[in-house]
Specification:
The protein has 59 residues and is mostly helical. The protein is built from one helix and no strands.
């Protein structure tokens, strides 16, 4: 295997790692947003005024 082929494989592995990490972050952000909504609803039921959760893009 040439140095160029090794570098291509290394960069491909790195790109896969980054894509997997981004996917995990998106899933976690969605879960956190759902949890924020549930907590806010529970607090509203108790009469506590809470600010809306931050936009998902800022998470």
């Amino acid at each position: 295997m040439s140095a160029a082929e090794a570098r291509v494989r290394e960069l491909s592995a790195q790109a896969r790692h980054i894509a997997e990490r981004d996917q995990r972050r998106q899933i976690a952000a969605a879960r956190h947003a759902a949890w924020d909504t549930q907590v806010a609803a529970s607090l509203h039921e108790l009469g506590v005024v809470v600010a809306p959760p931050p936009p998902r893009e800022d998470v």
